[in-house]
Specification:
alpha/beta; GMP Synthetase, Chain A, domain 3; nine-stranded mixed beta sheet; 41% helix
Length: 612
Amino acid sequence: MITSGGPRNSAPDTLNRLFFDAVQKFDKPDALQVKIGGNYQPISHRTLAERVRRAALGLQALGARPGDRVGILSENRPEWAIADYACLTSGLTDVPIYPNLPPDQVAYIIRDSGATAIFVSTAAQADKVRQIRRQCPSLRVVVGFGASRDDGVDLTMAQLEAKGAAAESAASIAAYRSAADMVRPDDLATLIYTSGTTGEPKGVMLTHDNIYSNVMASAVQVPFVGDDTCLSFLPLSHISERMAGHYLMMATGTSIAYAESIDTVPIDMQLVKPTLVLSVPRLYEKMYARVLENALAGGALKKRIFFWARAVADRWATETLAGRKPGGLLGMQYRIAQRLVFSKLKARTGNRLRYFVSGGAPLAPEINKFFYAAGLVILEGYGLTETSPVISVNTPSAFRIGTVGKPVPGVEVMIASDGEICTRGPHVMKGYYNKPEATAEAIDDEGWFHTGDIGELEDGFLRITDRKKDIIATAGGKKIAPQPIENKVKTNKYVSQAVMIGDKRKFPILLVVPNWESLEKWAKVKNIIWTDRAQLLQMPTVRAKMEKEVAEELQGLARYEMPKKIALLEHDFSIERGELTPTLKVKRRIIDQSYKNVIDSLYVDEGEPAGV
């Protein structure tokens, strides 16, 4: 079956055109916002355009030529945007690098891309490049975003812009704009290295029009109102934030406020009062867990009010999602529930939020419905780096929880005979850099990109059931989709992470990382005494508690889907140990290897040899 988001809604064009048009059309005082001294300061479209031009002229003065690759190793900040647009308008291909990657992985990306220059944000990032610079023969220039020249930096951003300003003249400005206009839609805009849940990272080649077409298709999915503000905190190194939180916001005149860090998001949300927030499911999972924890930590009356309000809101959501307008007693109860309970949750977002957007991994339907019932709509979408990224997204007018919405304009979706989701259209990448075999494997002769995800179409809505490579086939031949099961478990307030293992084994098991804040509070109430967390996890009463909590979340599963045993892990999975991608997706293969002894021990008791 093939479904389509309809015809493309824009002619092929470039990100340069998008940028120049936005500057001219909106000309606002707060194109960007940056936190300085605890308060947000605006940067106007005019200032942004001037700094982009001067940085571009500075790069040209350093010898950068169209087609060269330039790295950006930085957290989200205005200089990231300036560096990006300076590269694009110069005909350069930029290579964003996750700031949390270790030096050896940074070196791999610089070498593989052949980057001739790199922007770095801080002394720590500059030091990474300093350590591996000799391993990167193509790298000639390191530009630092800091006010002072850190060790390993050749010149600061201010010096680069000053170099460009010194080269400014009527003729050079005209030549810069002419060269920017000569960039073609099919020219390479960026090389984005996949986070790699399996194998080494691959450089995804995205053209100007790959991304431009996706921006234009996405711009009609959410009704932008002209004075929107977006809080940007997902890594701009990732295509989701790059397209939606960067280019899409620029194209719609939305002010982009950069969070100081991921840890300050709750505070920054209060300061910025955003109308739009883009995130991965982990944020919503944590918000949900926090709300539940606060309710359960209160007195008996507070608990009763919360669970009454949640039940009322859930009934209201069921009626509303079915297309009926709740009225009468339910309508009145819902208004009371909003005032007593959910208004507090909305206040934490700044009280102006119109939409959350979720992508990057599946969002548990229970969590999505909870936020919808609370009056905070999460528009869940779906896509990959290779698809620029949006394939489909829920919209205010076409919204169905448990799905990732309908395809956006210009995008075709097909479900292959084995259930794999395939897509075709202007959003599909040019290919993998220097990897023709991998490209041919991913894109077939008819132009269909094979996503590696399993899904189904219902009334035009796309539903993701799992990753093709994640499907667990037990030794008995039963096939299990682990992600929905893991997502159910993670809605429990005592659970931080959950990963199902069981491929080619007799039965599935579950690795569970407790939510230590909740578990330790419970242990204190039960008068349990412990010296460290490892000791706590060995106690039979604690193990029984965690097994009971997990079992309650998984009621209704088929018998073969139920994890037969649970292993409790002391430490959460981390990017640094290679267990999570930079976008917080679990690397199942790494987890399987890292905890091999723990996993094998659960099967040995059943007479299965270790390592099976």
